[in-house]
Every structure is written in structure tokens, then in C-alpha cells.
Design brief:
There is one protein chain. This protein is an alpha+beta fold and 232 residues long. Helices cover 38% and strands 28% of the residues. It is built from seven helices and nine strands; from the N terminus they run E-E-E-E-E-E-H-E-H-E-H-H-H-E-H-H. Strand 1 and strand 2 form a beta hairpin. The two termini are 18 Å apart.
């Protein structure tokens, strides 16, 4: 794509936070507009609109500048545009630009079980904190007969849970479960793009700035593919 045809982000300062607005041309949709607005306190919203005024997607998130972290509450593509135009990916790229421009160290979110692979695609890792999420995750992996070695690891962790006596031990098992969940997610991805993890409940995930920087070539290619004049 010719660099002259790329849309350049416009940055505005709001309460010490840099917010992006962006105009892009999409072959299937024509001119689309993306804009981030301050809602209240630390809360912001990205909205993407088509040329006819239809909202294509929205992303509600918070930025905590002093803590150098973001929290993504909900990213959602409008029903009629799902699975066709990569609107979800565009919103994720905008959030990553926000992360870079505001020097954010981590972006956190709670992922529904159906969205874990989507978030993992953009560098998010499992960050399981709630014991119920841990237990459900281990149960799901232990029952997935596609990967017997990972199922065995999950069963061993379940056994350790039964012997767990302290809060510190419980938290350590959350960490180990997060590590196993990432291994499981990567295994599922390696088998087939159409395969899905068999989670029956979601859990917390986290994206580190260092991960984005280490994968800058991948993200820069995605920016270009979406017609965004931006490089990490």
C-alpha cells in the first residue's frame, strides 16, 4: 500500500492522556472514522463509524496514567459487521497505539471464553487471579483429549489444589495455571486456525508493553494492512 494512501492518526491531549482520531478508506466500507472520547474520570471510548453514520464497533477502556496501565472493559464489533471487515482487529490496533503513545506498561482485561484466542492473537497472556477461574480452566484442559500431555499437567495441578493450605499456595497455583493455559492456547493455535480451546468460562488476560515492542514488526504490518500511517 502506498504510504500516501495511509491514514495518519491525529493526537489530542485530554487530561494528560493522548487520544487518537483517525480517518481511513476501506474498499468495502468507504471512508470510516475512528475517534476516542473521554467519558468520565479515567474512562474512554473508541467508536468507529462508517460513511453512512452506522457504528461499526466500540471499545470501552480506562487509562490510569500514574499507574502506567490500561483496562479494557469491552470491545465489540456491531452485529452486522462481525467476521467480515476486521473491525475488532482495528480497534485492538488503536488500543495498542494508545498504549505506546501514553507509555503504558500493561493492558488488562477479562476475556470471555469465546474471545480468548482473539486476545491471544495480539499478544495477551493468561493472568488468572480468581480461584474459580483457575479451577474451571484446569477442569477444561484436563478434559481435552486432543492434548493428553497438557491434560495430565492440569490433573497434577488439580491434585496440588486438593493439598493446598495457604493463600500463597493458592496464588502460586493461579500463576502455574496461567502458564499452562498459555501453553494450551498456543497448542490449539498450532493445530488449526479453526480449532478452539474448550474453556467453559473466561478469565483475566494481560498484554505487556515489552511484548508489543518485541512483536513490533507484526504490529507494524497490521497497521499498514489497515491503512494506518503508524509504526512502533
Amino acid at each position: 500500500m502506498d504510504i500516501k494512501s495511509l491514514g495518519k492518526p491525529i493526537w489530542n491531549n485530554c487530561l494528560g492522556v493522548k487520544l487518537c482520531s483517525l480517518s481511513l478508506h476501506k474498499k468495502e466500507l468507504g471512508e470510516i472514522q475512528a475517534e476516542i472520547r473521554h467519558i468520565r474520570d479515567y474512562n474512554y471510548a473508541t467508536n468507529i463509524f462508517a460513511q453512512n453514520g452506522a457504528r461499526l464497533g466500540k471499545d470501552y477502556f480506562a487509562i490510569y496514567p500514574e499507574e502506567k496501565r490500561m483496562f479494557d472493559f469491552n470491545i465489540e464489533t456491531s452485529k452486522n459487521y462481525r467476521g467480515k471487515f476486521r473491525i475488532g482487529e482495528l480497534m485492538r490496533l488503536i488500543s495498542i497505539m494508545e498504549m505506546i503513545e501514553n507509555k503504558i506498561k500493561t493492558m488488562q482485561l477479562y476475556s470471555r471464553e469465546s474471545a480468548v484466542l482473539f486476545h491471544a492473537k495480539y499478544g495477551f497472556q493468561s493472568d488468572i487471579r480468581q480461584f474459580s477461574h483457575r479451577d474451571n480452566t484446569l477442569n477444561a484442559i484436563s478434559k481435552d483429549t486432543r492434548f493428553k500431555d497438557l491434560a495430565q499437567k492440569a490433573k497434577l495441578l488439580v491434585k496440588q489444589l486438593q493439598e493446598c493450605l495457604t493463600g500463597a499456595e493458592n496464588r502460586e497455583l493461579c500463576r502455574l495455571t496461567s502458564k499452562l493455559a498459555d501453553e494450551y492456547i498456543n497448542r490449539v493455535k498450532s493445530v488449526s486456525a479453526k480449532e478452539n480451546p474448550k474453556f467453559n468460562q473466561g478469565f483475566d488476560m494481560i498484554l505487556h508493553r515489552e511484548t508489543v515492542l518485541s512483536q513490533r514488526e507484526k504490529f507494524n504490518e497490521l497497521f499498514k494492512r489497515h491503512g494506518i500511517d503508524y509504526k512502533i
